[in-house]
Amino acid sequence: MEKKTDELIDFIKSRKSVRTFLFEKIDKIIIDNILECGRWAPSGLNNQPWKINVVNHPTIKHMIAENTKYSEIIEEAYYNLVIFLDKKKCYNRVKDIQSIGAFIENILLAAHAYNLGAVWIGEILNQKEKINEIFKLKEEDYELMCVVAIGKIDMQQKDNRTSERKRELVEKFTEWY
Ligand SMILES: Cc1cc2nc3c(=O)[nH]c(=O)nc-3n(C[C@H](O)[C@H](O)[C@H](O)COP(=O)(O)O)c2cc1C
Rounded distance, CA 153 to CA 14, Å? Predict the structure, then answer.
């Protein structure tokens, strides 16, 4: 394999969830660039069924944090990307949600490219109606998909220094025909 290919593969494999952050400023342009990577995610019929609310304001952050057991992560993160399915753009529920997944993975990889920490918080879906209320978004128009918390990585935390992660081997979930 070429060196560049090796590096890209290593980059994909080395992305990991980061749940403890330093509360240090991240320039808005970086979030713009991260969202630009989301923008290029694939979607069924290219319908791009996403809507993002970028949250940096402490009061709004706190209001969101109150709706998940992962409140500390959300409070610590410099930015939280609140990711909705734009139901008005949808045509097939499974495919639309798959497209959101592709969008989110692009976001996580872009954050990783900037050496920022990020984590996909899905548990907050238990309170998805409350999140719609915070932003005054109608449930018939927008459905919460997750929050991605983003911040500078706190390297004092052991979890953030180790690269150890667990995955099944490919042959465990793959059959060749
Ligand atoms: C659909 C989905 C929901 C998730 N929800 C949460 C969550 O609520 N809280 C959390 O800390 N991590 C959450 N995660 C992150 C996973 O725990 C994490 O990706 C997994 O353990 C693998 O670890 P890694 O990302 O470090 O490779 C979620 C990930 C996905 C894809």
Answer: 14
